[in-house]
Amino acid sequence: MIKIKNVTTHLGQKINHQIDGEDRVIEAEGLVMLPALIDPHVHFRVPGAEYKEDWESGALAAICGGVTTVFDMPNNTPSCISKKRLAEKKAIIEKQLKIPLRYGLYLGADQNHLDEIAKTKDQIVGLKIYMGSSTGDLLMNDPKALEKAFRLAAENSVLVAVHAEDEDLIKKRSAECKAALQTDPKSHSMIRSPEVAQKALAVALELAEKYKTRLYVAHVSTKEELDLIRKAKMKGVQVFAEATPHHLFLTTALYEKLGTRALVNPPLRDHVDALWQAIKDQTIDTIGTDHAPHLLEEKMRPMGSAPSGFASIELYLALLLNAHHEKKISLEQIVSLTSTQPREIFHWPVNSDVVLVDLNHEQVVKDSHLKTKAKWSPYAGMKLKGWPRYTILKGKVYDTQMVP
Questions:
Q1: CATH architecture group of domain 36-351+371-379
Q2: Is 290 a residue of the active site?
Q3: Domain residue ranges in the chain
C-alpha cells in the first residue's frame, strides 16, 4: 500500500491518500497531487527509427514528465496500417517496455488498406489521417479515399485524428517561394501558412458533419482553425481540438535562435494569444505534446534535409505548471486538458495513477538532463517553476529526481 501523507489536491484540499501497490510512505507536505497525465499524441519511433527513440527511453521521459499513458502515432517504418502491423508493433513495444507505461495505438489511414479499419476497431484509439505530408509515407490526399475513410470510421465507431494541412497548397506555395528564401528556415512557416491548415480542416469538418464522424484535430496552431472549430461545435459536429506546447509557448522568433532546429509540422506560428483564448473558452479540448524526437545532428542539417519535430514529453507538465504561475491556466484546467477530457474523448478507462508536483521548485531546462534519446530541447535555457516530483504508475512510485 502506498500511503501519501499531507498532500494537497489540485482543488486545494489537504488529504492523506492511499493507492494499492508497493509498500511505501511518501511525506508529501508541500506537494500537490494531480491525476497522472495522458499524452494523446506521441511518436516513439518504433518500429524503424529506434535510434531516435524507443519505448524504454520514451517511457522514462514520460514518467519524468508526469505522464503514465500515451497514444502513439502510426507513421513508422513500416507504417502501421493493418491488423498484422499493429500486432507486430505491439510485440516490439512489449519487449522494450521496462516501465509498464499504459499506451494506445493509432491505425494509419492508407487508401489501399481502408478495410483494416473494421478489422482493428477494437484495438486502436483512432484512425490517423495525414492530409498533408510529414514524417513517414502516410500522406492521403485523394478526395474519394478521404471520404471513404471518414465514412468507414463512422460506421465502425472509430475516432478520426487528422493532420490538417492541404498538400496541394503546400506544393503550390513551395513552388512560388523564391529560391533565396527556400534556404531560410523561416520559409517553413510561410509555405505551410495558416491558409494551408484552414483549407484542409474545412474539408475534414465537412466530412465529419456529413458522416457524423468523431473528429480529433491534432496540433491546432492557427486562429483560422479555431474559428472553424468554434463554428462546427456550435453546429453540433463532434470535433475535438488539440494544442501542443510548442504552439502555446514558442513563436517564429525561434528561427533566429535555432535555425532548422525550429522546424516542426505544422510550423511555428505567432498565434499564441489565440490559442490561450481558446483554452479559456474551451474550444481546445486537449494538450498533446506531438513528442517527435530527432537527433541534434539531424536537426542541424540544411533546409530540405532537416526533419521536423521536437521531443517534449518530459517537459509537458513543467511547461503547464509554469504557465499556471503566469496566471495563464488554472490547475483545474490542466487536469481537464491532460487527463479528464482525453480520457472521455478516447474512451480510455479510469485508473489510480497520480503525479505529485512541487509547485515551487524552479529549474532551468538543460539538454543534459533529458531522458529522451534526442538529448536536446527547443526549451533549453528556460527557467520553469513547478515540476513533477513523484509519478505513481500501476502502484509503483517513480522519483523523478532519482530516475537514472
A1: Alpha-Beta Barrel (3.20)
A2: yes
A3: 36-351+371-379
